[in-house]
């Protein structure tokens, strides 16, 4: 769980002793909150299980997330004396640099997880060993989605892949897939990962996404969506949230990938992660304006969005806006 401070529109990061001015900024809950907010905005009843400190950063994060409809923070207790993780992102036209502070995995979340009722889906970050509550949830009927981050701690250890036996769907990006499998092509990587897990999904940014069903041997693909990316922060998390949201639908896998790509592209076209995640109404409007940029049939996705809007009514609610100069057309009523 992070508070992200995004500073964008700078030409180069400051050298020691220098000061530069950004043209845009955004404050947003980050880390695991990206996926949680993403799922809630897409109409899913969502619980966020994480550690939030009792400091001023934790106050701000809690206030912002507390305004989000369908997102419960009840399982996420405030931790006395803990400093909530903070990450400052400096974004140039070419790349981003980060300065972060906080403690990874600050507490054992087992008791907090036990407080959550049955969940149709859940997301967990893979490590060398998964907590026992992941297996318990899966045995109770929850579909487990797993992901990985940039693995500088474990050096792309094979021990992480052995944890896939407790996961139903493994989602990672192309660079992570090639690093873990020690392969040179995404096709070889996804086939290799199919030896460990039933469904593997590899995201490829503007090149789209692939999914491999190990049981049937079917490889599904969705094209990328080329939009002007303002800030990629949280786009991968939004992809996972959207994929989880469609888990109970009867959509073809390729259409599920397309829906997830649409949601991720929407997030990347705004500044900040969770604060730029789409609501259903926002996604519907955005899709209408970007059909010419999508090299795929979007009818199944449009029908699904319409059905979900009808189910959810008009309860869409966005996080409070942070001070930002992001695209005015993205502001939602």
UniProtKB/TrEMBL annotation:
Q: Which GO terms describe its molecular function?
A: kinase activity
Q: What are the entry keywords?
A: Kinase, Transferase
Question: What biological-process terms (Gene Ontology) are attached?
Answer: phosphate-containing compound metabolic process
Q: Which SUPFAM superfamilies match?
A: Ribokinase-like (SSF53613)
Does the UniProt entry include the keyword Repeat? no
Q: Which residue range or ranges hold the Carbohydrate kinase PfkB domain?
A: 26-279
Instruction: Specify whether Transferase is a keyword of the entry.
Output: yes
Q: Which family does it belong to?
A: Belongs to the carbohydrate kinase PfkB family.
The protein here is known as: Carbohydrate kinase family protein
Give the source species. Lacisediminihabitans changchengi
The organism's taxonomy opens as:
Bacteria, Bacillati, Actinomycetota, Actinomycetes, Micrococcales
């Amino acid at each position: 769980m992070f508070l992200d401070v995004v500073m964008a529109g700078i030409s180069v990061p400051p050298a020691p002793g220098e000061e530069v001015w950004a043209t845009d900024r955004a404050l947003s809950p980050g880390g695991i909150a990206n996926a949680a907010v993403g799922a809630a905005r897409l109409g899913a009843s969502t619980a966020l299980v994480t550690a939030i400190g009792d400091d001023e950063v934790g106050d701000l994060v809690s206030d912002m997330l507390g305004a989000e409809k369908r997102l419960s923070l009840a399982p996420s207790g405030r931790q006395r004396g803990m400093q909530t993780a903070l990450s400052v992102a400096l974004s140039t036209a070419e790349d981003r640099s980060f300065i972060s502070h906080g403690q990874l995995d600050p507490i054992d979340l087992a008791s907090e997880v036990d407080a959550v009722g049955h969940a149709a889906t859940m997301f967990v970050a893979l490590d060398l060993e998964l907590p026992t509550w992941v297996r318990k949830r899966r045995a109770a009927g929850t579909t487990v989605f797993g992901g990985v981050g940039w693995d500088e701690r474990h050096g792309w250890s094979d021990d992480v892949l052995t944890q896939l036996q407790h996961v139903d769907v493994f989602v990672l990006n192309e660079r992570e897939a090639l690093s873990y499998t020690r392969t040179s092509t995404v096709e070889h990587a996804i086939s290799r990962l199919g030896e460990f897990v039933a469904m593997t999904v590899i995201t490829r940014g503007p090149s789209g996404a692939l999914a491999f069903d190990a049981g049937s041997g079917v490889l599904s693909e969705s094209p990328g969506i080329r939009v002007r990316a303002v800030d990629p922060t949280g786009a991968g998390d939004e992809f996972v949230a959207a994929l989880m949201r469609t888990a109970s639908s009867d959509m073809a896998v390729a259409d599920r990938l397309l829906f997830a790509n649409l949601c991720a592209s929407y997030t990347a076209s705004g500044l900040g992660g969770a604060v730029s995640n789409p609501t259903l109404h926002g996604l519907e409007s955005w899709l209408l304006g970007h059909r010419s940029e999508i090299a795929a049939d979007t009818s199944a996705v449009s029908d699904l969005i319409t059905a979900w809007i009808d189910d959810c009514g008009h309860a869409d609610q966005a996080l409070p806006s942070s001070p930002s100069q992001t695209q005015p057309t993205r502001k939602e009523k």
